[in-house]
Amino acid sequence: MSKSVVIVGASMGGLRAAEALRNNGFEGQVTVIGAEVHAPYNRPPLSKEVLAKEVTHDAVAFKLRTQVEDVIWHLGDPATSVDLETQVVTTNSGKAFDYDGLVIASGLRPRTLELPNGKLSGRHTVRTLDDAIRLRTDLVPGARVIVAGAGFIGCEVAATARGLGCEVTNVAIDSFPMIRPLGEKLAAELQRRHESHGVSFRLGHGIKDLIGKDSLSGLILDDGESLEATVLVEAISSHCNVEWLANTNLDISNGVLTDSALRAVTTEGQSVEGVYVVGDLARFANPLFDDDARRIEHWNIPTETGKRVGAVLSAYLEQADNFAELAALPFAPLPSFWSDQYDMKIQGFGMPGLADRYELADGELSGELVMAYFRNDVLIGVVGIGMTSEVMKYRKQLLGT
């Protein structure tokens, strides 16, 4: 009898897993369950070039390749529970989907501020296409925009809003924007560049409350300062979409813990055959760095984990002779990320946030540059602004090639 796979999550990770199943010879039924009504699309441009233009599904939609033409897309109906014993996923509408293999790809959702006067219009997050469509409507010339959070998404939105003629202030509890992945030296330089474009910063501060009756007119910082605002973009962090797994014994304390084959792991430390995890939720140890299991939210991880799961899960379902050998292979993807801010093309590889020191390896701090990151004198990351060919040389070093 033909086997079936249910993939919970219809974003990049779920799509790549479906493609990889087919590419590895799995011929059974593949069903993808998605919370959104949209077919899979690319999220990173939503805070970059797409937000600066007309936001449409066509602008970000992935082209569905021929190998997934027969995949069943069940969209706009999120999974609400799974029974690992009977192997059934249930959705919000009450539909039940049997599976032989399960792929957990339900991703993240934005965390928002809990504020006494929080029920005002003008608040936005940037995670979904619909989020970006709503935000783009409010980013009109002269709008007073507060961006809460100074990570990559927050800084990308600030740069985009400034380019659209908005007055922009970034508020964050951090001492410098993007400091965690970049370190103080480069983060301070990027703050200077943002300020040269007219962005104001209130760093080392949180937001205490909002001002307004029905719509936002301002906010109050934790030191009592009031700022005018008609738009608030909250880019502070994320929640893992694991509530539908609450009735299982999987370790969902931070995403979903996996082994090196990306099989889900229980709270007792046992791998669950036939249940796999891809994308932002997967918490796995990467031997390129150490033995600590971490979630990695960089843009290439959904693709890398999707390929891995497609290969291992298809071998498991087909009872292939090489399944055990394949599952035992180390999984060591090199994280990579990119960010467009004004005319800056920022590209990074590795895990610079784990570094205990860094140094300017090439270029000038005020221009194009390459920053190298080390832990115990071992190169673990590189970030470049421009200088792509030089950055790629360090990427090869990270891969040991």
Strand content: 25-35%
Specify the CATH homologous superfamily of the largest domain. Answer: FAD/NAD(P)-binding domain
Radius of gyration: 22 Å
Using the alpha-carbon principal axes, give the shape: globular
For the record, what CATH class of the largest domain applies? Alpha Beta
CATH topology name of the largest domain, in short, is FAD/NAD(P)-binding domain
Q: What's the mean pLDDT score?
A: 96
The count of strands amounts to 27
Number of helices: 10
Unreliable parts? none
Distance between the termini: 44 Å
Largest sheet: 6 strands, mixed
Strands of the largest sheet, in order across it? 3-2-1-7-20-19
Could you describe the 3D structure shown?
The chain has helices at residues 12-23, 49-52, 57-60, 129-138, 152-163, 179-182, 184-196, 301-317, 323-328, 388-399; strands at residues 4-8, 29-33, 72-74, 79-83, 88-91, 96-98, 101-104, 108-110, 123-124, 144-148, 167-172, 200-203, 207-211, 218-221, 226-228, 231-234, 238-240, 256-257, 263-265, 271-277, 282-285, 293-295, 336-341, 344-350, 357-363, 369-375, 378-385. It is of the alpha/beta class and 401 residues long. It has 3 domains: 4-109 and 239-328, FAD/NAD(P)-binding domain, CATH 3.50.50.60; 112-236, FAD/NAD(P)-binding domain (3-Layer(bba) Sandwich), CATH 3.50.50.60; 343-399, Enolase-like, domain 1 (2-Layer Sandwich), CATH 3.30.390. The radius of gyration is 22 Å and the shape is globular. α1 packs across α8.
